[in-house]
Design a protein that fits this description.
Blueprint (H helix, E strand, L loop, with lengths): L7 E4 L11 E9 L5 E8 L3 E12 L2 E4 L9 E2 L3 E3 L2 E7 L1 H4 L10 E8 L7 E5 L10 E3 L18 E7 L5 E4 L16 E4 L4 E4 L5 H7 L23 H4 L18 H9 L8 H9 L72 E7 L29 E5 L15 E5 L7 E2 L3 E2 L5
Parallel strand pairs: 1-9, 16-19
Antiparallel strand pairs: 2-3, 3-8, 4-5, 4-7, 4-9, 6-8, 10-11, 10-12, 12-15, 13-14, 15-20, 16-17, 17-18
């Protein structure tokens, strides 16, 4: 490999103008006779999350990234929060970039400082038995995620989270007459503006991930096997958050013994169940009413060829996702799929439509036609004063393996009591992790 002779930097500005903006300077890059590449830099003004790219000179002043998949073994002060001062990154390109070629102009390291309120697009959180709080790592794109986003690691012992830029975006929640199976009052359209950006799980919480967080759990999923990479189901809303104690309802912190409570303790991150608005915004992935979340049309039938690509529902069983043969269930219907078995939505999130329904934070109300923009503002109240309806049930979203395509529409709202458990309802987690 030719000696690396050029170095540069880039910095991401903070979204808060009054906050100190982290600055990178004095970037150097060199390679030893043993092929080890050493990159040094200085971080000033504020702590930041640091990411790395390496670019080669294509021609003249044109530079091109070698690709994030070539940088998975970069270690040191990178992919994580770093305090101000001088720092070092090491990289062994021969282990991850075996067929590399560097043009005559050389290569350069691009060290990026991300302000702590504007961290990178992907976050990986260790939840294994050896996990320590506040050790999450960050990556600027899907190709930088170690092993790729479909790696089984992110379905078993870690959580892979995707950043959703939602703050200040006004969008239409609910459905219109384009969706013939809609309920006009239960899915009434209304404008919503979310107050914060957030991270959401790329996958539904799996059985393995549940057991990592709550190793003493006595809850048994109905569909097992496949190295526990199927979604966790059969747990109640109370199991996930409040442990049957209403004093822990949102906005109070979750019960310490609940799944969310133990996940927070294990990671040091403000994990939560998504609100309906957070869920639907991420599920739609920028696609409006009348469309699935990859931009294809909703066909308004129980069998939908477009949904077949995106999720597990009643009418598309397949051999690799068949039900556990020890369970008494119609094999033509099937069961849950290993998470990530189908195509992601346009924002790279899997199984938001189909597989299992997903609990949301909000209390349920049958008629939201008079809510205007108030729905999802305060999901803690079991009675909404705008409609006068009283409910003791929580919302779940997204359709499931035992239901037709019409139930997987992003606007469809299901409901169940907080003590009910079903083999077709699971959960996906969100967090702000400091995002504003």
């Amino acid at each position: 490999m030719k000696k690396l002779i050029i170095a540069s930097f880039a910095a991401a500005a903070s979204a808060v103008l009054s906050a100190a903006v982290p600055e990178i300077s004095d970037v150097t890059m060199s390679q030893s006779a043993m092929r080890l590449v050493t990159i040094t830099y200085n971080l000033a003004d504020a702590p930041a999350v640091i990411t790395l790219d390496v670019q080669t000179n294509v021609t003249g002043d044109v530079w091109a990234s070698i690709g994030g998949e070539a940088l998975w073994n970069a270690t040191g002060d990178v992919w994580k929060r770093v305090e101000t001062g001088s720092h070092t990154i090491t990289w062994r390109p021969h282990l991850s970039w075996p067929d590399h070629k560097i043009a005559a102009g050389g290569a350069r390291a691009v060290v990026t400082a991300w302000a702590l309120d504007n961290t990178p697009d992907y976050m990986v959180v260790d939840i294994s038995a050896a996990a320590q709080p506040n050790t999450q790592t960050y990556y600027p794109g899907a190709d930088f995620v170690p092993g790729g986003v479909t790696n089984s690691l992110y379905k078993t012992t870690t959580l892979l989270m995707r950043k959703i830029m939602a703050k200040g975006v006004t969008w239409t929640m609910g459905s219109t007459a384009l969706e013939t199976a809609r309920n006009e009052t239960r899915e009434a359209t209304h404008l919503v503006t979310l107050a914060n950006n957030y991270y959401i799980g790329v996958y539904e919480v799996t059985q393995s991930q549940w057991s990592q967080v709550v190793p003493s759990s006595t809850i048994a999923a109905y569909f097992t096997g496949d190295r526990f990479m199927r979604p966790m189901e059969n747990m109640t809303f109370n199991d996930i958050r409040s442990a049957s104690d209403a004093s822990y309802d949102w906005p109070s912190d979750p019960h310490p013994s609940s799944f969310i409570g133990q996940l927070r303790s294990k990671t040091g991150i403000d994990f939560e169940i998504p609100s309906e608005a957070q869920w639907e915004f991420a599920a739609r992935a920028g696609n409006g009413t009348g469309y699935w979340n990859d931009g294809s049309a909703i066909l308004n039938t129980s069998v939908d060829a477009n949904l077949n690509n995106l999720g597990r529902y009643m009418k598309n069983p397949s051999t690799n996702t068949k039900a556990n043969p020890s369970k008494s269930i119609d094999p033509s219907v099937g069961g849950t799929a290993i998470v990530g078995s189908y195509a992601p939505n346009d924002w790279g999130i899997y199984d938001m439509l189909g597989n299992v329904w997903e609990w949301c934070l909000d209390w349920y109300d049958e008629d939201i036609s008079t809510f205007g923009g108030a729905l999802n503002i305060d999901p803690s109240a079991p009675a909404n004063t705008l409609s006068g309806a009283v409910t003791s049930e929580r919302v779940f979203r997204g359709g499931g393996w035992y239901f037709g395509a019409e139930y997987a529409r992003p606007a469809f709202r299901g409901d169940a009591g907080v003590t009910y458990n079903y083999n077709f309802i699971g959960v996906r987690v969100v967090c702000t992790a400091g995002l504003e």
